[in-house]
Amino acid sequence: MQTTPMRVLSVIPPMTQLNTPYPSTAYLTGFLRSRGLPAVQEDLALALVLRLLSRDGLKAIRAAIEAIPAKKRTPLAAGFLEHFDRYLFTIAPVIAFLQGRDSTVAHRICSRTFLPEGPRFDALDVYYDPDGGDPLAWAFGSLGLQDRARHLATLYLNDLADVLRESVDPRFEFVRYAESLARSQPGFEPLAQALAAPPTLVDALLRELTLEAIARHRPQLVLLSVPFPGSVYGAFRIAQAIKAHDPSIAVALGGGFVNTELRKLKEPRVFDYFDYVTLDDGERPILALIDHLQGGRPAGRLVRTFRREAGSGEVRYEHFPEPDIAFADVGTPTWDGLPLDRYLSILDMLNPMHRLWSDGRWNKLTVAHGCYWKKCSFCDISLDYISRYEGAAASVLVDRIEAIVAETGQTGFHFVDEAAPPKALRALAEELLRRGVAISWWGNIRFEKSFTPELCQLLADSGCIAISGGLEVASDRLLKLMKKGVSVDQVARVTHAFAEAGVLVHAYLMYGFPTQTVHDTVDALEYVRQLFEAGCIQSGFFHRFACTVHSPVGKQPDEYGVRLVPLPPISFATNDVEFIDPTGVDHDALGTALNKALYNYMHGIGLDTDVRSWFAEKVPRPRVARQFIARALTQA
What we know:
Blueprint: E1 8-12, H1 24-34, E2 39-43, H2 44-52, H3 55-66, H4 75-82, H5 84-98, H6 105-110, H7 135-140, H8 145-167, H9 189-196, H10 201-217, E3 221-225, H11 232-245, E4 250-254, H12 256-261, E5 276-278, H13 283-293, E6 305-308, E7 315-318, H14 352-358, E8 363-365, H15 384-387, H16 394-408, E9 412-415, H17 422-435, E10 440-445, H18 453-461, E11 464-472, H19 476-482, H20 488-500, E12 504-511, H21 518-533, E13 539-544, H22 552-555, E14 563-564, E15 579-580, H23 587-601, H24 628-634
Parallel strand pairs: 1-2, 1-3, 3-4, 4-5, 8-9, 9-10, 10-11, 11-12, 12-13
Antiparallel strand pairs: 5-6, 6-7, 14-15
Helix pairs in contact: 2-10, 3-5, 10-11, 16-17, 17-18, 18-20, 20-24, 21-23
């Protein structure tokens, strides 16, 4: 039996975020170190982007394009070659600027003569000043120079990503990298074919980075956490490189994508790359796996773990019943080992809430495990990350916050809860103020009545700068069908209370929910218009409803008036499921109008315009009273 602690390396694979580390490896590394294990972490997503977006990386991209016959090169690739010297001259200063290491470059970037401007800069044409002035000044307001430069630099990077996608790797994206190979993909064949294909330049660089990390840390166990479908292909390429280099290194796969989409995993070829695939929170399965690898327990006593039987090649799911690690006992996340000064603060969208996702580095932390409400019919409430609700004392949370600030030197926090509980937030705010801990934080909540004006002000005093929450379909009938537990007038009062406290409010909005009619959609947009007009919300985003197999709609479609389209045989991933709605509404056409209206509302445009004007086709008059929200606020 092995007695020396097992060396564990946790890896963030491409692609997640460019501005801040995805938190899974920080959670796991902090937990394993609290148990005395020599755990380390690497962000290969960031490392890959920085290697591609370097002078040597651009030279490699040029060589790949020059290997393509001139007649087959796209205009974008030809433009890159034509302006290559300018790209080579500017890439290092732009990266330094976006990393916050050289703010003075902003002056040159804003001159519009420094950067080569490809097709992405055409997007600037969508900004217009209603008064006929400078469109960028109107779009970015008085913040001016740094924000303008960051946006222009982001367009420059997006141009380079387009060049990569057209000429080097057609799957390349900064976030949704090769997403179609994994998202709700019932079979493994598309991913298998991609992995068997000759490596692209991106693949080759990722292999180099992987082997450098292995040489640096000499791990015995590598944990790859894939939160999204867009990080699956990169994870498999990393595992492929490790297995080709040293098959004795154990490699395990986990994370949000696995927890959601691989619960019916039967495909044995997955285990050509990974030795183990774990579900749900990783702390207990990883401890059991380490114990097994050190000879302390048989494979049959693994916890929530898929493996391949050596003899038969059959995929087995092992789940020895052991209690999970309590949320209060998981320890403090650590970012030790991650290059916090090398992340890129980009500005690609004017939506003020989306900007928080991509601009600046935030320490990600969880206030409570799971969701205290866990009733919404569109949500995966049957899965552990939602259904198992656990909290921790405010003193424990602030201890973690103080430790993270001391380690990182940064006081910005993104609380990544599905919906942070109001009682826990109150206790946290009071503890922060009692200790005199000054931080800035934002997170997701439910717009429920517990968020009184007094509580909203307390949260603002404790450092709350922004709040997001699901208004979903702004219709009391549909909110009731969703089991959302809120009403439109209640949402108005809560959002107004936050806005009055100086907190930015973002509303998640939904369209295409089962039985939603055109009239429902028009009514919902009228409610949204009034919420913007009254200053209740400052930001929003409409997304199309998707039915998932783990949600109440996916499990009991009859209760929601829809019929599911039968799924094909599943051996790999499953999540989204198509459904037939008897209303027959063309929600895609409506979505175009909704997003156009929302974009303008966020800029204060069209708030006094009839909502029907946003729709290309004739739609019915809204049934909502013109002063509904204003009256709801007077009843607070």
